[in-house]
Amino acid sequence: MPTLDVEDPGEDLLVNLSALESRRKHTILKTAFGEGRLAPPLSAAFARKVTPLHSLAPQTSATRTGNVRRSSSPSTSSYHVPPSSRGRLLRAMNVLTSRCAKLAPLTGNAVRLASSVARLPDVHKKNWKEDVVYLYQFPPARVVPNLSPYCLKVHTYLKAQKIPHEVISSWKMRSAKGFLPFVELNGHQIADSQLILSAVQKTFGIKENLSTEEAAVARAVDRMIEGSMFFTILYPKMIWNPEKYLHREVTNLPLPGFVTNILAKSFVKKVKRRFGGVGYGRFSKEELRDILRRDLEAIDGILGDKKFLFGDKPVVPDFTLFGHLATTYYLPYRQPLGDFLDDDFPRVLNHMLRMRAHYWPEWKDPK
């Protein structure tokens, strides 16, 4: 079966047709997004270009390349086949034509899917209220308020700052950039958690009252969590335990076990394809554990005996840390992060417990 890989808007849509008859060749159809517009649908154009061999008119001027002579005319690109090879090539080309005709509707579906993503509305909430944050995120999970560390981070920040907000839960909705979470604020859409918090701070005049040095360290810690610790947590959580992570006791999705097992294999491939190129995918389990330990040691050194990372009040990296720790620690299976927090970093564990008690009093553990 052909495989369809739809990337975020602004990237290329690749439709891999490598299941065709030829072992040496494969066809890649590429649709480029530009300024929110999509190239014309491929299916009709593709069908027009697929022509059976017997309909090709013979040419007189040609240059020889192996057993096939290619026309030297500058305005055409056709081929002459010696009689000894014509029958075999004719059968192969007709099989290819038949296969391509069957794939043409699939190509059109891919384009329509990409087109719907490319034309997502700038604002979903048409009757928005001024200075109300509309938070779009994944539905709640069974063991944590949200399985996404970024959704939990943003939601907790809005609760902590007492910002008027409304949560819209959805598995399907995405921002114009193709992301979750995203927010809509005063008629504007903002995606990516760090950009969301920055916009909220500017709109509502939130000051963190850090010194220049503290602000620099806070920024560095925030980026370390999402640029390093994220990957050391991701692999044990998702890639090493996909069946457990996708189980309905975690996700709240009413899927039977055999369906979860099937989805897990595809899920692992997708995650590896997306994150394998950053380098962490090539590390061994022990190397990932070592990086995670060193990241936790850095956080523990900054936290010390303080209530939060930089004093008595939490700042942005406190919420980032909470989002990544809580969405992993409370999963119902053992992972390196849980072992480290329980055995080696009690102060970091207490930071997470403190954040939960302060801002999620309604969060109850499943029975």
From TrEMBL:
Pfam family, one: GST_C_6
InterPro entries, per database record: FAX/IsoI-like, Glutathione-S-Trfase_C_sf, Glutathione_S-Trfase, Metaxin_GST, Mito_Protein_Transport_Metaxin, Thioredoxin-like_fold, Thioredoxin-like_sf
Transmembrane segments annotated in the record for this chain: none
Region annotated Disordered, chain positions: 55-85
Domain of life: Eukaryota
Record CDD domains: GST_C_Metaxin, GST_N_Metaxin_like
Thioredoxin-like fold domain ranges (all copies): 149-237
SUPFAM superfamilies: GST C-terminal domain-like, Thioredoxin-like
Biased composition (Low complexity): 69-85
Any one GO cellular component localisation term in the record: cytoplasm
Domain Metaxin glutathione S-transferase, chain residue ranges per copy: 293-355
Biased composition (Polar residues): 57-68
Gene3D superfamilies: 1.20.1050.10
PANTHER family in UniProt: GST_C_6 DOMAIN-CONTAINING PROTEIN (PTHR12289:SF32), METAXIN RELATED (PTHR12289)
Similarity comment: Belongs to the FAX family.
Protein name stated in the entry: GST N-terminal domain-containing protein
Taxonomic source organism: Steinernema glaseri
